[in-house]
Design goal:
Helix 4 (about 145-155) crosses helix 7 and helix 6 packs across helix 7. The strands form three sheets. The protein has a four-stranded antiparallel beta sheet with strand order 1-6-7-5, with helices on one face. Strands 2-3-4-8 form a four-stranded antiparallel beta sheet. Strands 9-10 form a two-stranded antiparallel ribbon. The two termini are about 30 Å apart. It has helices spanning about 5-20, 40-45, 130, 145-155, 160-165, 175-185, 200-215; strands at about 25-30, 50-55, 60-65, 70-75, 80-85, 95-100, 105-110, 120-125, 260, 265-270. The protein has seven helices and ten strands. The structure holds a DNA duplex (16 and 16 nucleotides).
Length: about 280
DNA sequence: ACAGGATCCTGGGGGC
DNA sequence: TGCCCCCAGGATCCTG
């Protein structure tokens, strides 16, 4: 499930393959996408040069060069989404929902997504602020201050894991890295957010950044479906401390990792290292 | 008002 | 062995 480290890995893979190329055609379908493709987006895209690729939270933003600087092709990988750059003669994988032709047929950017939780859409510059606005997407974890996080945490009775998963609080955390960061911070995922002391909030913020930095260095986690580049797998799944390890011994204290359900998500924690209080 | 649940979707894994 | 059911989850909408 691509979260921030996986999306960052994909962006780094795409940059040398896409930046500077020209979009010469778009083919979408035949199946309906989660966000239906608007036919008039084609006219906005064809002929444009792909200028710069960057990540915001779990979103991939492929910005388009002039005339309307700030327009972008926006991709969210959802659960099983994948972006690849291939030569047209290479057979297309099943569940390829969108193909963007580049440089008059020499290459193409493909979007495949078996589970179709992903999104792909054209974002005009005029709507840019809406995505960036804090009502939809909070700061990048490295920009989040302890004060910011404390302000969000102290006003809700949601469990702390639900707060970490809330993209408005900070952008990019999903189920895996929420569990891993809470273990790193030695906080129980079910703690009511407003019961966290200031030093615990600070510990959590620093744990989030540490876990994400480590995961990016390992090219993210590959579980079933995440690949980047040409079938390259991330390695961070080998570093998991709690995620998916229920019944296995804690690497720190040897107690058995527990599993429960919080915020509608499978949740993994060490009952000893992450005591409730 | 706010928190938790339902929803979408499919491949894969477990159980019988 | 084979089949069926259920489960995984990001974001959004719904319910109590």
């Amino acid at each position: 499930m691509p979260e921030l480290p996986e999306v960052e890995t994909v962006v780094r893979m795409l940059r040398p393959r896409l930046e500077g190329r020209t979009l010469t055609g778009v083919r979408v379908g035949p199946r309906r996408l989660r966000v239906p493709w608007q036919r008039h987006w084609n006219a906005q895209l064809v002929g444009r040069r792909l200028d710069h690729i960057h990540r915001r939270g779990k979103w991939i933003m492929i910005s388009l060069a002039r005339p309307d600087s700030g327009d972008a092709l926006l991709v969210h990988l959802g659960m099983t989404g994948r972006l690849t750059v291939a030569e047209p003669k290479t057979p297309r994988a099943p569940h390829t929902h969108a193909v963007f032709h580049l440089d008059h047929g020499k290459h193409e950017l493909r979007f495949q997504d078996p589970r179709r939780f992903g999104q792909i859409r054209y974002l005009p510059a005029s709507e840019h602020a809406r995505l960036q606005g804090t009502e939809t997407l909070g700061p990048e974890p490295w920009q989040l201050t302890t004060n910011d996080l404390a302000a969000q945490v102290c006003r809700t009775r949601r469990c702390i894991k639900a707060v970490l998963l809330d993209q408005r609080v900070l952008a990019g955390i999903g189920n895996i890295y929420a569990d891993e960061a809470l273990f790193e911070a030695r906080l129980h995922p079910g703690r009511i957010a407003l019961t966290l002391a200031r030093n615990e909030v600070d510990r959590l913020r620093r744990a989030v950044v540490r876990v994400l930095d480590r995961a990016i260095r390992k090219h993210g986690s590959t579980i079933l479906t995440f690949y980047y580049g040409d079938d390259e797998r991330g390695e961070y799944q080998n570093e998991f401390r709690v995620y998916g390890r229920q019944g296995e011994p804690c690497r720190r204290c040897r107690a058995l990792i527990a599993a429960t359900r919080l915020a509608g998500r499978g949740t993994h924690y060490c009952p000893t290292c992450q005591a409730v209080s």
